[in-house]
Amino acid sequence: WSGKSTLNLWKPGKSGGKSSDEVQQDACHKEKKLKSTSKYIYQTLFLNGENSDIKICALGEEWSLHKIYLCQSGYFSSMFSGSWRESGMDTIELEIPDQNIDVEALQVAFGSLYRDEVLINPNRVIALLAAASMLQLDGLIQQCGETMKETINVKTVCSYYNSAGTYGLDSLKKKSLEWLLNNLMTHQSVELFKELSINLMRQLISSSNLFVMQVEMDVYTALKKWMFLQLVPSWNGSLKQLLSEADAWFSKRKNDFEDGISFLESEQGSAFLAVFRHLRLQYIVSDLASARIVERDGLIPAGWLSSVYKQQWFAMLRAEQDNDIGPQEINKEELELNSMRCGRKLAKDGDYCWRWTGFNFGFDLLVTYTNRYIIFKRNTLNQPCSGSVSLQPRRSIAFRLRLVSFDGNGKLICSRTAGYQILTLEKDQEQVVMNLESRLLVFPLYISCNFLYTSSEKRRENDARLE
Where in this protein does the record put region Disordered (predicted)? Predict the structure, then answer.
């Protein structure tokens, strides 16, 4: 732009202009006028029904409304513009096929056509979503979805997940599933276990994103408690009492079966087979105490366990005799399906060092958190180890590391992931795997890891054939 300006700019103190205070007052008056107009329309036309040209009847109630406003709804727009019988009627009886819809929800949904803003009560949001979906009010549907995303907690998550599937809110469904993956194991709840359906629990247990605390055995324990509550929903004790109650209940049922029949193969237990099938048993039977508990419980079919014992035995022989030094490339599908899931809660800032229990094929992995660093160390000779230790010069692991913090409702405050990586370590070598920024250090801090200690058997067979 160039040339002389013909725009007259107002300057303070010159006649003909308005002061900044006057401009601000004019804006306020205009806003008040708009608000009062909207309020007048809502009060006069909707609440009072003045100049109504159509009556809508539903669930024993009647609304005196206006076609011009109703046409904002896709449902009524199609009704009035087509060759439907109702298009020429001045009283329409609505059939309400959805049991979630009630009179209060219809009142809010119809009222939304006469006003700019709707305040949504989270306790009423599912009923309102149902009404908005039937009336095809896209803006209100979206607003319901956003309200639900902001109010996901232990009491709402299951109903929100189911509603998201019913009314096609894919982003809400994804958000609810993420909340469950993060909170199922980190913030266990009797009420949540009762609400989780078989299909939803199957999705959670099969996911590599399940935030596990501490090791895979804890997933089995959580499933045992969940299955007990599904079978005895009237039980109302505390979370601390739940495991002993579940163990006692299943122990009594064990005597009712023929020798060799597990609970999951019984009539009562067969409904849960699909969920338990997604347990990563290879990381449960790799710990002696855990393997003994699984055998004692008699929940898992013997055939499943025999197959896993064989699988683990061959993996151990490959590591010991075939010099399997671990994964050499990232296979995301294999990591997601077969990795060991484990985690740790750091209650407050400080120095921590730990190892996750289990037979890790001679790779004794020490994890250290100190000075905002997370360090992996391959312990060979420096520190005592209760299990066997590999003396191979180099060993590799595939892993993914995630850190998160939650607010009081289980919502993520912050999260960080290192992504899938291959780490090769020499004897007693350590490596920084994550450097945390101070803004991420909101405690308690939850750490989740996925590990693969051995390479895929199928890939090694293919390599052997090529050689």
Answer: 1-23
Cα gap 368→329, rounded to integer Å: 25
Give the alpha-carbon dihedral of 64, 143, 186, 304, to 10 degrees.
80
Question: pLDDT (tens digit, 9 = 90+) per residue, 177-206?
Answer: 999 999 999 999 999 999 999 999 999 999
Distances (CA, A) of 103 to 110, 145, 448: 10, 20, 46
pLDDT tens digits, one per residue of 29-70: 555 555 578 899 999 999 999 999 999 999 999 999 999 999
CA distances from 267 to 262, 263, 264, 271 (A): 10, 8, 8, 8
Give how far Cα 279 sits from Cα of 275, 288, 356, Å.
8, 17, 18
DSSP for residue 214 = B
**Distance between CA 356 and CA 329 in Å, rounded?**
23
State if pTM tops 0.90.
Answer: no
Q: What is the C-alpha to C-alpha distance for residues 164 and 175, in angstroms, rounded to an integer?
A: 10
Q: Which residues contact 115 (CB under 8 A, 6 or more apart)?
A: 38, 39, 41, 42, 46
Coarse DSSP helix, strand, coil percentages of the chain, rounded to the nearest 5 percent: 45, 15, 35
Strand partners, 434: 374
Contact between residue 102 and residue 55 where contact means Cβ atoms under 8 Å apart: no
Q: What is the DSSP letter of 270?
A: G
